[in-house]
Amino acid sequence: MSTLLRPLDRLVPWLWPLAVADLVANVLIVVTGGAVRLTASGLGCPTWPRCSEESYVSHGELGLHGAIEFGNRLLTFAVALVAVLTLLAAWRSGRRRASRLALVVFLGIPAQAVLGGVTVLTQLNPWIVALHFLVSMAIIAVCVLLLDELRGPERGAAPLPVRRATLVVFALGWLSLYLGTVVTGSGPHAGDLDARRTGLDPQWMSHVHAWSVYALVAATVVLLVLARRAGAARVAAATGLLLGLELAQGVVGFVQYFTDLPVVLVAIHMLGAALISASLTAVVLSARPLVRRRTRTPVDGSTAVTT
């Protein structure tokens, strides 16, 4: 058995870059998924798991929309490969919590593939599409957890008011992400010309979403002040980065609203949402303690640590 597993040992030194690649891949697939919707290619492959009733792959009759949708499906396999390699590297390193987090990320990929299939089979139901997007945001958050587990700095807990404030910011951030999906599901970018919308007034929902963003920015500023006064430098740094992302995302959101939602700005807005999901997680982690203890020596000869 050890002989069979020996080739996997070579993955252990690559655990960190693989974990980084895991995060990057899951952010990129959010952007490419957005490209599918923004080019009205959501039903370019009109069925699932096949691309058409006759074939698993796109063909000439499906045109450019079919090629775009099928390309996004192929990219899922690349993301899954990175997730598998990360999981194997974490497992062979002997780091139990890292292995569990890598497993969650890996399981999220086929779950997303199935959920993506459901969106096609329901003719791009906007609520299913929203869930599909939010699951991607959750996977990105777990990728950040994994990176923190692997190389996050050892730290004590921030003062209780600061920790509570990070949770408020996290909750408001996720509320804003959710309301953003409702705005998108009510607007013109359905992913296909014939896909139905939520039936909600997109202008009204845009205002509701904007107010959630105002609340998020205000809570982030309060957290930044609390962290600085408490001397919680790590929390302050993570919160400052989040605030910068929020302000940039807000500018993009306002510009796209007043310019009738050009596809390039909508795509940038989706990328910003993915980065904010990662940053929200980093803010919460920065206020939480992380102390490592030594464990057994893994197969690559280095000293493994767990938390």
Radius of gyration: 21 Å
Helix content: over 70%
Query: Helical region count?
Result: 9
Tally of strands: 2
Q: What ranges have pLDDT less than 50 throughout 5 or more consecutive residues?
A: 299-303
- Beta-strand share of residues: under 5%
Total of domains: 2
Summing up helix and strand content along with how strands pair, one would put the structural category as mainly alpha
Task: Name the average pLDDT.
Answer: 86
- SSE order, as H and E? HHHHHHHHHEE
First-to-last CA distance: 28 Å
| Spatial order of strands in the largest sheet | 1-2
Biggest sheet character: 2 strands, antiparallel
Tertiary shape: flat
What features would you describe in this structure?
Helix 2 packs antiparallel against helix 5 (126-151), helix 5 packs antiparallel against helix 6 and helix 7 (202-229) packs antiparallel against helix 8. This protein folds into 2 domains: 9-152, no CATH class; 156-290, no CATH class. A two-stranded antiparallel sheet has the order 1-2. The chain has helices spanning 2-9, 15-38, 63-93, 96-121, 126-151, 160-186, 202-229, 233-258, 263-286; strands spanning 293-294, 305-306. It has 307 residues and is an all-alpha fold. The protein starts with a helix and ends with a strand.
